[in-house]
Amino acid sequence: MRNGKGKIYLAVMFATIVCLISAIGIRISPATFLVQDVPVGEFFSITKKYGYIIRISQVPASGYYSLTVKKPSEDGQTATGFEDIPDVNWFYLERETLYISNDSAVTCSIGVNFPDSAPLYNRHFLVGVEIMPIPESVRGNLLLSAELLFRIETEPKAGIKPKLSPGEFVFVPSAVDFDSLRPNDTVTVEVKLFSGESTLCHLSRLDPETPVARKTILPTVGYMRIKESMIEFPESVLATPQGVSIPISLKLSGKLPRPRLEEVIIAEADSAVVAFLRVRMRRMKNYEMQVIPR
User: With b meaning 16 or more CB within 10 Å and e meaning fewer, what string describes 214-224?
Assistant: First the structure.
């Protein structure tokens, strides 16, 4: 997460499989990735800052291919805890048309530019990029397409009131950092859970062995899970459009067992995960406890 302004941690999860359609389909990588702490109100170049790109290879036939940013739900694709990016024009592609030879690979730089709007903080967005051959330039009858799914978590920030429709939920802030606790310290901070309409929500730790944890709500790279005995929070709350306060307490007995720990707290309504909150602990060299508000 963020430790002071300007420092952004990018978590990129390379899937164990890439998107491969049939034995001679279009191969694209990474098939999915997670970008965290994306700023609001300024252009964020994923490629320029961190070197990550879209790479396309093993196309069925040489020719021109189009890259199109899409809302994944339009093709029936969803990810638990994420929603469609409101405007596909916010996601940047270096090129929308590429010439690709079937015996080589090409790359495309990417970025995102969220407008300066308070409701865009603390959000979890899903973006799709479809790769499709342009029929006039590709010979043969085999015209396949492939799609990437990107997860984008915007910068967490406290004091924001999101604009939500019924059925939508948001934690504010969407992440809290504890840097770091002294031995035997107990520290409590409050976050808020907003919803488009009053809804009873159950809170729990995300089980890392579930499909949701393995495929959709990806963990932050380099962080281990917080022990259950170290974290406390209510089991249920009534989320409202005005937001309900939720105390999150962390207790450290002895030294921090790992330099970086994370817990993902999920909110469920009607047995479905509707929102999630990241809680992190980090061991600092001076061992002074700092709670970074968002």
Answer: eebbbbbeebe
Same domain, 145 and 216: no
**What SS3 state is found at 151?**
strand
Instruction: Answer whether residue 53 is part of any domain.
Output: yes
In the chain, which stretches have pLDDT less than 70?
1-32, 139-143, 180, 284-294
Residue-level pLDDT at 291: 41
Q: What's the rounded Cα separation, in Å, for the pair 37 and 8?
A: 6
* pLDDT, tens only, 162-212: 989 999 999 999 999 987 677 778 899 999 999 999 999 999 999 988 888
Q: Which residues contact 7 (CB under 8 A, 6 or more apart)?
A: none
* 56, 105 contact by CB (below 8 A): yes
- Cα–Cα distance measured from residue 89 to residue 91, given in angstroms and rounded to the nearest whole number: 5
Domain count for the chain = 2
The size of the chain, in residues, is 294
Using CA atoms, how far apart are residues 14 and 104, in angstroms rounded to an integer? Answer: 21
In terms of Cβ atoms closer than 10 Å to its own Cβ (0-12, 13-18, 19+), residue 132 is: middle
Using the 3D structure, point to which of 129, 154, 179 is the last residue of a domain.
154
39, 142: one domain = yes
Give which of 26, 46, 48 is closest to 36, Cα–Cα: 46
